[in-house]
Amino acid sequence: MIRRLFILSAIIGMAIYLIFAITAFNDKPSLQLCQGMKYTIKDSIDYGFITPNEINSLLKKKKLHPEKKQIKDINIRELEQTLSQHPFITKAECFLTSGNKVAIDIYQRVPVLRIMSNNGDDYYIDDKGYIMKSPGKAVHVAIATGPIDRKFASEFLYPLGKLLQTDQFWNAQIEQINVTNKKELELIPRVGNHTLFLGKPGDYNEKFRKLQKFYKEALNQIGWNKYERISIEFNNQIICTKKEK
Predict the structure, then answer these.
(1) Looking at the whole model, is its pTM more than 0.85?
(2) Of the candidates 196, 201, 234, 200, the residue with the CA atom closest to the CA atom of residue 212
(3) Of 66, 80, 199, 228, which one has the greatest count of Cβ atoms within 10 A?
(4) Nearest-5° Cα angle at 64, 58 to 68
């Protein structure tokens, strides 16, 4: 009898403990207060368009800053949507940590080309082809100048900027793209006192493949300053203009 009472008491005690545990671990955390923010900004070494201070200011302005709010009152999806609307953020991922903090992973928009048009436009094109306003900070990308409207920039200059971004050699070599009144392209390299003439936009992969071969097989032998103009406008030839003595 005593043994049965002991077993029954143990079962009742275990049931009470389980009810308490479920209540403690499931209900109470939602009532606890957020203990702060934890930021991770991707590509922060190469691009410093957005800072933790700016994120804090934005969330406070929108009355969404989670610190000292009850966990149950924090809308993670709303935080992500608000941050993703920032002009220099392509995506934001938010989640709660075990320490009752809100962790935020920020993915910045990556520029591939800067446009400085004759009409006064000054903006960047990102790696998805979208226009982003100038962040007011220097960015190491090629600059395109001349009579450039936004349609021309998106259709013809974005593919060129994307190629330069993904090719280590050309990314380091090309510093300026000049668009002529005939909508032809001239490139200004960092190394060599010459102008590269591409002609009409398009066929970038083939033109740069041909040009890189010419660089390796010709300019490395005769010198990088022998010509003032190198034209790769036509598919089957490279036309070089020597400098006047």
Answers:
(1) no
(2) 196
(3) 66
(4) 115
